[in-house]
Amino acid sequence: MTCKEAFQEISKYLDGELAEDFKHILEEHLCKCAHCKVVFDTTHKVIELYCDGKLFPMPDLVRTRLHEALRRKYREKAL
Ligand SMILES: [Zn+2]
User: Fold this and answer.
1) Quick check: helix, strand or coil at residue 64?
2) How far is Cα 70 from Cα 57, in angstroms, rounded to an integer?
3) What is the pLDDT of residues 21-52, one digit of tens each?
4) Residue 56: its pLDDT value, please?
5) Most confidently predicted of 1-15, 27-41, 52-66
6) CB-neighbour burial class of residue 26 (10 A; exposed 0-12, middle 13-18, buried 19+)
7) How far is the CA of 29 from the centre of ligand 1 (A)?
8) d(CA 69, ligand 1 centre) in Å
């Protein structure tokens, strides 16, 4: 998995659309790639903050902002 692919999977994760198989592939990449790990951890924290561990849909505005922040982060790295 490339960082670009990882980014796409993290985006899906944000939307709660990431399939179990891909979670494992993503986790594997995160073990090897510090950059994606930081992005994922940040995303994860924000999701937990909003969901409080329950299955609340994230407010659209929050999700949109997260997606934008992710895209910016990956662009900075010129991937
Ligand atoms: Zn990566």
Assistant:
1) helix
2) 19
3) 888 999 999 999 999 999 998 888 877 766 56
4) 60
5) 27-41
6) buried
7) 6
8) 16
Give the pLDDT of residue 53. 53
* Amino acid occupying residue 17: E
CA of 71 to the centre of ligand 1 (A): 13
Say if residue 24 is exposed, middle or buried (CB neighbours under 10 Å; 0-12, 13-18, 19+). Answer: exposed
Distance 36 CA to ligand 1 centre (A): 4
Determine the distance separating the centroid of ligand 1 and the alpha carbon of 32, expressed in angstroms.
8
**Cα distance between residue 79 and residue 22, in whole Å:** 20
